[in-house]
Structures are given as structure tokens and as C-alpha cells.
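Bit of a strange request maybe. I'm writing a small parser for C-alpha cell strings and I need a real example to test against, not something I typed by hand. Could someone generate the C-alpha cells for this chain?
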Amino acid sequence: MDPWSEIEGKRAHDPIFQNYFSQNCRQSVDGFCKKRSADAAVARAERCIRVLGPIIVGAGPSGLAVAACLKEKGVDSLVLERSNCIASLWQLKTYDRLSLHLPRQFCELPLMPFPAYYPIYPSKQQFVAYLESYAARFGICPTYNRTVVCAEYDEQLQLWRVRTRATGIMGEEVEYVSRWLVVATGENAEVVLPEIDGLDNFKGTVMHTSSYKSGGAFAGKRVLVVGSGNSGMEVCLDLCNHNANPHIVVHILPREMLGQSTFGLSMWLLKWLPVHVVDRILLLIAQTMLGDTAQLGLKRPTIGPLELKSLSGKTPVLDVGTFAKIKSGDIKVRPAIKQISGRQVEFMDTRLEEFDVIVLATGYKSNVPFWLKDRELFSEKDGLPRKAFPNGWKGENGLYSVGFTRRGLMGTSVDARRIAHDIEQQWKARGKHPGVLL
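Reply from user aminoacidic:
Good idea to test on real output. This should exercise your parser:
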């Protein structure tokens, strides 16, 4: 049996790949796919598969949320994931002690709450278990080990062509064709590595937090953590608890204020007051509880935490115990790095110190500009939607984005519901006019 016949046979028994095109449209797409396969036959067993429902790129929380909302409306989708599991960032690239920074009610995905017995701030393991249960409940079975290398809209076919490569040096290439494309790779697809003079020649160990698991391996070592966001602060606390000697190069807020979560209090105040007023209230309470953080080397930005989050996407640090270690001197705060020579680090205040390990808690970035051939919905500069929330979820020609709101899982839930509703309307219109290629 030739490869194309084999694909057709499999498709006939798979609801995701059912034929919903009119006879003329089917012939044009089939002809295109067969030509693609014939052209690539010499080099590799390349395939072209027509997909009935939307293609969702990314099997993290955002991709799962859209797939579930679509499934509830009777629309199947194909979820493509470059790793070998769902929520690969959470499962493979986070440290052991990680937990949700916001209360669970602000982190639920659509249509399924967290189990009632979960704590207010679920652990990494509990969150992953929740996501696995979520996928099982809605019958979401991603196609794993498929990296999208190119996605572009074909004006002639009026379809999205999504080219993928299987994991491995000589991975098989498969092209999927669909009316809809949902970009769910998120804001944290690729690590961000800082440019520091001499970092490449550091004589000790250098790692990004995506490779850090526990401070147990660094007991007794001098560790410099670069980046003072939530990850950097938590890594410092973890190192301190494992008898390492951490140093850290912000808005820092107590995780709870006035008997409730800081985030919950913020959301409640925003119902009645403008952002700048809420920022002033939060900073006043924080100063009362934490004192003058500048004396410890933690200088506050010139604008408030909520406004900063809205403008730049930078999340304010919610303290989980690190601040007490800084006050006690167990964790040392240092200014920016000027340069590195051997194991010696020179800081901007001219201080020189030696370190065994450097942990880069410098975050992640979007990788959308590297594979999506569309410059209308997403910015080439940062790989985020050009329009701010709540207007960045939909582009042209059946293109959507989810997980790019800079508002965490709350923003994901809002956009997932919108996307599912929008596609459902087109799906129903197709049912009324089956001869029309939507």
C-alpha cells in the first residue's frame, strides 16, 4: 500500500480527519497534499493530512483549555505538542518546590474546578495532576513529539498549512491542513539568556532555572542567582533551605494581606477603584508589613505593581518566605553584574566575589515569530499579540491566540471561551451550507 492510501485508510476511521469539504474543494486539497507528498518522497516519507477541526499548537494549559471548550461545543481539534507530555514547561522545566503563586480559584481552567481538597496554593505536582485529569475528562489526546517549523495561510486554498517535524535528527515531516489555527505556545516557550560580559567563560556551573530542580546538589556552595522575579526569589529560598550560600542580583509584596491573598484583594479593590489608587494601597500595606526594602538592596520600580504588570507583563514578586531570609542575612542581595572573570564576579558597586554556581532566573519568551508566517496578529519584536487584552485573541483568516494575555490562567480562560464560541459559529454555518469551504 502506498503512503497516501495508508493515510486515507486511517483518516476514514478517525473522526478528527473526516471529510467535510465539498467534492470540488476536496479534490483541490487532495491534489495539493498528494503533490506535496510526491515532491518529498525522495527525501523522506512526508505526509499531508487534512484536519476537520482547528489545529491547536501547544498542549500546555492554554491549548488544553481551548480544546476542552471546543469539545464541549461538539468540535474536535488536533493538538500538536513538541514535547512528550502535556504542560511540558511545568513537568520538565520547573523546580521541585514550585507551587501556584495565586489562589487556586484564579487558576482554574474552563469547565472544571480544582478538587475541593486541594490547598489554596496547589503544588506543582497537584497542578500537573489537575491538568492530566482535565485532558482525560475532555478526551484530549495531543499528537506528541511534533515541532511546528512553519505555519502559513494559503490564499489559494483558504486554509492554514502547518508543517511539523518529528523529534530526532532525521525526524519525519508531516504537514497538516486546516481552516483554523490556534496559537497556544504561550509567553514562556523559550528561555531568555542574558548578555553578561564573561559569562560564557565562567569557570563554575551555569544553568537556567529551566534546568534547576532542587538546592540539594549545591549544599555548601556559593550560588549567584541572576534575576529577582518570583522564580529567582524561590530558588534563593530553596538554596538557603539546603544549606547553600545564595546571593541574588522589584516589587516585593506579601503573598497575603489583611487575611486574604494579595491578588484576591487587588481584584476586589479594582472593582471600585482605579489601578493607580489600588497600587498606592498595596504599596502602603506592603511597606507597613515589610518595612523599607531599599535598605536591603531591593529597590522598588517607580510605578506600582499592577500598572507595571499591565504595561510590561512583569509579575510582582509575592513573598513566600524569601524576604525573612534576606532580612536575616542568609540571602545576600547584590547590584547588577558588571563582568565575570573565571569564578570572580564584579558588581556595579565595584565589589568582587567568587561563586561556584550561577543560576539564571531570567525568564522566558515567546517563539511565535520563528514559525508563524503572519505579521498582523503577532508582533515580530516580542512574539505577543499586537493588541492588548481583551482584543488580542483573534486575527484574520481563522487565526487565534490564547495564553498571551499577560494575565496568567485567568486570561487564558477568557480567551479560550471566546475562541471556542467563534469557531462554533462558523462550524454551525458550515453545517447549514456543506458545499461552502469555511
